[in-house]
Known about the structure:
Order of helices and strands of chain B: EHEEEHHHHEHEEHHHHEHEHHEEHEHEE
Number of helices of chain B: 15
CATH superfamily of the domain at 175-413 in chain A: Metallo-dependent phosphatases
Distance between the termini of chain B: 79 Å
Oligomer: heterodimer
Largest sheet of chain A: 6 strands, mixed
CATH topology of the largest domain in chain B: c-terminal autoproteolytic domain of nucleoporin nup98
Shape of chain B: elongated
CATH topology of the domain at 175-413 in chain A: Purple Acid Phosphatase, chain A, domain 2
Number of strands of chain B: 14
GO molecular function (chain A): kinase activity; phosphatase activity
Largest sheet of chain B: 7 strands, antiparallel
Domain Calcineurin-like phosphoesterase (chain A): 182-377
Keywords (chain A): Kinase, Transferase
Helix content of chain A: 25-40%
Pfam family, one (chain A): PNKP_ligase
CATH class of the domain at 175-413 in chain A: Alpha Beta
Strand content of chain B: 15-25%
CATH architecture of the largest domain in chain B: 2-Layer Sandwich
Domain Polynucleotide kinase-phosphatase ligase (chain A): 463-836
Radius of gyration of chain A: 36 Å
CATH superfamily of the largest domain in chain B: Hen1, N-terminal domain
Amino acid sequence: MTVLDIPELALVALVGVSGSGKSTFARRHFLPSQVLSSDAFRAMVADDENDQSASADAFDALHYVAGKRLRAGRLTVVDATNLQPHARAGLVRVAREHDVLPVAIVLDVPEALAWARTEVRADRTLGRQVLTRMQRDLRRTYGQLAREGFRKVHVLRGPEEIDAAEVRYEKLFNDRRELTGPFDIVGDVHGCRAELESLLVRLGWRLHRDEQGRPVDATHPAGRTAVFVGDLVDRGPDSPGVLRLVMGMVAAGHAICVPGNHEQKLLRRLRGRDVRLTHGLAETMAQLEAESPEFVSAVASFVNGLVSHFVLDGGRLVVAHAGLKEEYQGRASGRVRAFALFGETTGETDEYGLPVRYPWARDYRGSAMVVYGHTPTPEPEWVNNTICIDTGCVFGGRLTALRYPERELVSVAAEREWYAPARPLTAAPARPDEVLELGDVAGRRHIEHGYGSLTVPAENAAAALEVMSRFAVDPRWLTWLPPTMAPCSTSSQEGFLEHPADAFADYRAAGVDRVVCEEKHMGSRAVVLVCRDRDGGRFGPGGGVVHTRTGRPFFGEPLDTELLDRVRLAIGAAGLWDELETDWLLLDAELLPWSAKAGGLIREQYAGVGAAGRAALPAVREALDSAAARGLPVGELRDRMARRHDEVRAYSAAYRAYVRPTEGLRGVTLAPFAVLAGSESSYADRDHGWHLDLADRLCAADPEFFTPTRRQVVHLADEASVAAATDWWLALTAAGGEGMVVKPYAGLAARSKRGSLLQPGIKCRGREYLRIIYGPGYDEPEQLKLLRQRSLGRKRGLALREHGLGLAALDGLADGVPLWRRHALVFAILACESEPVDPRL
Amino acid sequence: MVGVLLTLTTTHRPATDLGHLLVKHPDRVQSFDVPVGTAHVFYPEADEQRCTAALLLDVDSLRLAGARRRGRGGPSATPETFNLGQYVNDRPYAASSLLASAMAKVFRSALRGESRERAELAATPIPLELRVPVLRCRGGAEVAVRVFAPLGWTVEATPIPLDEAYPEWGDSRYVDLRLTGVQRLADALNHLYVLLPVLDDAKHYWVAPDEVEKLLRAGAGWLAGHPERGLITRRYLAHQRALAGQALTQLAEERLTDEPLPADTVDDGSDTAAQGRPSLAARRRAAVLAALADSGASRVLDLGCGSGALLTALAGDRRYTEIVGTDVSSHALTLAARRLRLDRLPERQRNRINLWQSALTYRDDRLRGYDAAVLMEVIEHLDPPRLPALEDVVFGHARPGTVVVTTPNAEYNVRYDGLPAGRFRHADHRFEWTRAEFTAWAERVAGTYGYRLRLSGVGDEDPEVGSPTQLAVLTIDVPDPDHREPQLTPRKEERP
């Protein structure tokens, strides 16, 4: 039996004459979807799999599909004769474009057998002389395959060997996804043995020394694994000592290591190549003089065996010396290795004569965390989920390690400057590293996040792009948007469109036993992100932002800053900065009164209707009264108009309840009802008791500016509790209140017993308030009957989708995920808002 | 369900002849089904001296919504696609085209001047008093006077306060209208038929396609000589455009113009440019085109192209081999495509022009590698804190060889009559810069991104406040080390 070793990700070219059994072989060893057959593609483009005139187009299409598969990391097998160099060259090119290994499997059967098989096939029309020519091409092929770039060539001779062959998949060397850590990833050491020892000790490692006292291994009591990002050698005082320790740790399975460009160069030198002794190589070579030839040769074989990058922890972590862009992760090719060792350069050199490096991390959109070194920086900084941990120890900086998965940085200072840097360490890039690209948000997009997935249609994204770009606050500050909120199921109680009984029933049906009823303030939604430091913090310059439900600045300056100052003070006075150990907080609140922000809307939309109605109906009634006095039968019409008049007056009273004079912030109050997030935490898992308690403390700290949220906690199984809350709602709404929001007591991220996300809140609006939503006379029996046909499904679906996105955005904020990814979530919430949904719901 | 009222009173004797003219008996209450509800006709008073007919339109808001829905896209449109305003609105109370069309149905023969019983009277001017207690009147009571007075009416238009509870809110857009005069009844009705919708000036959803014809018919004999016929016609027919553009108005394009907005006058749509001279917008385009021509560019970007005024000029100039217009508003791009007649251009012409939705706050790889870019009256539409993003996107990432920027000169605003101090030229402007402010910005951008800067002005230069428009041309200089670009195809050719 012949075993054919094939990398898990490869482009496999079957090579053989017509009738050699390629398709049969492919069927036996590969999935039908993995096999791209030239016959099939010929049929696809020309309706005839023998139409040789269609070959060019067929191969074009085949290469295209192969490229798509390889880009997605899928093994692809090409079933074609592949007897001619140009045909194989095309495949090698596709493989290289996607940095996968091309593999050839040659099926060599006697010409007579191939002819016999071809002859019996009704669908084959080629002549014997063609087969003979193919056989001749095959002979020639043997010597060419390896030269053409096929990294593995398997040859199977004769039908027996072909039948007996087995395919065995081999992992790529860089695929160490099974290693889950935890890891201590160490930056560029450059021969700084003493600092490396100190760092390991600080990280909790125990060093093991040989009889001469030299460290040769280290172990961690918690079973951690060290990962070295390369550049162990050169410039520093003891490159051999560093190598001895790291080689020992790697050999003992306590560490893994990727090579740096300095190891690469050292290896070339050790192999006797003509390498200039610059950039600290001279020091290393001098230090190695003192070592035994066995040690030097062990170094050479160690470096030679290093794999240019590793994919670790199920694909969540990638380590490479100079970083690695997403397309290259888990791939193998010369350019992948070159990128891993040297990074991407622009082809230019800077004023210090060093190559200008392209800031690939700025464009990085991959999901794996990339940890790398290579470029000394004064301070490691996360850029799109990548981090460079070379803090220039050898240049007198620090030696840094990243604890994974903790994302914690640990470093020790250099004992001294061991080597003068060619360019000052402080030359950090002046531009923002986290820039957003149109591709992050535009077009039709499928978004998966921790709470589900959704597809944003292109037209919604287009609408959101306009709003986001023209009206919203800086994306760095736009961390979350409130989801839309569905009303409770429609009430069938006389005179009510919405009633608490239905809100409670909705949650009871979802298996919730405790809810909180929060007074629904009739104002304008305000999301407040406030930093402890008035001049900035993690979100860039500025001490915070207050924005509307669509992300617009709330009032504009200077009022927004004044408002933030007020909130910041209250948080400080309530002691929340220290208690929550945070230097920023994200609050969800309602700003009151409604007229403060929506004065224009009230005057344009609502007051006008009232004015028209209040002027029209008296005139109508007067005319009807006169007609009635003449004895005309207008009684019914007159009664109806009298009712309309009452309704218009009730409508006017409804909107007037939300109008209060304000000037600047005078008269304005804020009613916070949720504390969404703070440093490294989303508070979505806290119950509403916690949220409201914090809100109360802000009210206590500044009672003039903060309005408390009245509420009732309801046990849904307890009739008395339900009745009390219902009475509370009736009283609240009778007094002009908008209504209430019922929420699962457990908090924002509450889930049903089946584990699905619950509606985070359901609104239950008062009868009078609904006049300004559905019209002054909406509660006429006939109208109400029609309005009860309203359908809530779409609104509820939308609310849940937006809620899931919002929770994911909060998690991302806490976990420090890259801006582009958080922004994509917030952007999607805004895009959802352009879904057509009845605005009255 | 509610009431829109019109009363017609005559003191012609016998006044009850009004019943003959209207073909509605003064002692009966009659009801008629009209598309949006029910119209009732009754007489609050009817004797020899004085007779008043009332037309009460009882608007059914559900049918109103239904009518709009049909107007919007057929029965398949879901009921969930509407704005709140369609449910809470003044139509049930205020006179508008709804009343006009109810009139047309209920008083059809009177409107035509026909009367079987009183043919002579129908042709005779009689003393009339018309009252519309709530009339939506865009432009205020003064407009009602302007349109009715030339027709021989004594006009009394009393503004209705927006809310008695809040006197500081001032007047609503409604007036209580009384017209008195000696007119043929048919003329009076035709005046109302045309002018109620004109004064309302709201969007209509059920206008028939023969609108022009209707206007001419109803306006026969009085519209042609009316001093405000321009206003009347424009407003009356604007509804047609509204009908066509309804679907597109959701995200209405803010026109990129810096001429001062007419201060809520009725004189809408007029050209503010002085007779015989190109407008500032035209001069600005010319200046931008000249700067582009100077730069020698052939592949150009118009960033924030709006509805494509500049693109049209670029398309007409053969030196430009590739023209890209971008805007964040997809509606603007639709308008631009229409203006450029993209779908009718021959392929070779068509291939020169691309329209892309793009936002100047997001990097867009498609915009890289062009010779020149234009930011004409664009930056002032961005909130100042977002300007660094625009700078990075345009000067850092797209990095065209030349960038032409125009923006208003705030100092010049004092020269615009009707532009109150402190107000911007356009409602969407987030800022307007003085010359010093623009210069400081442009110098900083040029310095940061390695561009050379040349500043000038567009429009007549005022010795004190400068030109109305500021113009900057930035030309790429030495590559700044911080902003070097990667090779176009980085390492692609490297063999594994």
